[in-house]
Amino acid sequence: MQHSHAGFLDYVLKHSQAGNIQSVINTIDRYGWTKGWLMNIGDQKGQILDEAIRSRKPKTVLELGSFLGYSSLRMAAQLPNDAVIICVDMNPETTEIARAIHKHAGVDDRIRFIVDSTERVIPQLTEKLHINSFDFIFIDHYGTHYLRDFKLLEEYGLIRSGTMIVADNVIAPGAPGYLQYIRNNPNYRTKTHESFVEYTNDMVDGVEVTVRN
Questions:
Q1: What's any GO biological process attached to this entry (predicted)?
Q2: Helix (H, G, I), strand (E, B), or coil: what is residue 98?
C-alpha cells in the first residue's frame, strides 16, 4: 500500500473542502470504498467510535496507531476545541500525511503526534505531557501489541476509573489475548460491537468498548 499514499493525499486535498472536517472524513471514506482499501476504522465501525466519544465526552484522548489520521479526525469532529488528542505512531511517512490532512481539515492545532513505538512512549507520557491519565484511549495499531500496551497503560496509571478504551479489529485480524484479559477482569465492563472490516460488507470484525470501573 505504501506506493499509493501520495495519491491518497492528493485525492483528499483535491476532493474535500479545506477547513471542513466532515468533508475531509467523507472524502477519505469515498477513497476507501472506490479507490483503494485503507486500514483505518472506516465509516461503519467509525460510527461506533463516534458514539463512544460522544458518551464519554473526553478532555484527554490517547490514540495508539494513527496511520493516515482518519480516526483522530473522527474524534476531533466530535470534541470541543479544548480537548487534547495525542497520537502515537511509529511510521514517519504516514504521520506526515496525517499531519497534512489534519492541517487541511483545520484541526492540526488540536492533535499532537509522537512518532515512536508505543512501548517506548507510554512510560514517558506523564512526564512529557503532564497528563496523569486519559479519559479516552483508542487502540488501533497491531493486535499482537494490544495486551502489552494496555498493561503498560495500567502500570503507569494512565487508566483510571471512568477511562473508556475502544479497540478496533478485535475479530479481524483479532486480539484474543487482549479480549481474554479485558473480559475476565473485574475492574472493567466491556462489550463487543460487531461490524465489518473497514470498506467491506462481508468480512466480520468487531470493536471492543471497555470502561474502567
A1: catecholamine metabolic process
A2: helix
Compute the distance between CA of residue 63 and CA of residue 48 in angstroms, rounded to an integer. 15
Look up the domain containing 56 and give its range: 2-212
For the chain, the domain total comes to 1
pLDDT tens-place values along the chain, 213 residues long = 445 688 999 999 999 999 999 999 999 999 999 998 899 999 999 999 999 999 999 999 999 999 999 999 999 999 999 999 999 999 999 999 999 999 999 999 999 999 999 999 999 999 999 999 999 999 999 999 999 999 999 999 999 999 999 999 999 999 999 999 999 999 999 999 999 999 999 999 999 999 999
Closest among 141, 140, 153, 160 to 181, alpha carbons compared: 153
Calpha distance 119→205 (Å, rounded):
26
Element (H, E) at 207: strand 204-212
Closest CA to 109 of 129, 133, 83, 134: 83
C-alpha cell at 100: 497534512
CATH number at residue 84: 3.40.50.150
Residue whose entry in the numeric block shows the C-alpha cell 476532493: 15
The residues that bridge with 89 in the sheet, in sequence order, are 115
